[in-house]
Amino acid sequence: xxxxxxxxxxxxxxxxxxxxxxxxxxxxxxxxxxxxxxxxxxxxxxxxxxxxxxxxxxxxxxxxxxxxxxxxxxxxxxxxxxxxxxxxxxxxxxxxxxxxxxxxxxxxxxx
Length: 111
Hints:
Elements: E1 3-8, E2 14-18, E3 38-40, H1 51-57, H2 76-84, H3 91-101
């Protein structure tokens, strides 16, 4: 389901048009001025990444202070240690890591 971008040739506004399939024809119209002189633009795109891919691409590494500014890295070393030693992580530890990643301060820690 693509999203196409158009630029109005009358007012230069940019419109994004969502279509259900590539073969669908949706005549774009400018919501800013009501004009029909729309020109299709090249759109940017995003590529999905896996969590491991993000961590591997992190040039800072786990020894950097900025590493922990990314909430996905909170508890990562703990998770890796449990996995490396083949030990199941206790639910209380899992809950604390998940809470920290969602922005909650872990219980008993005053910041």
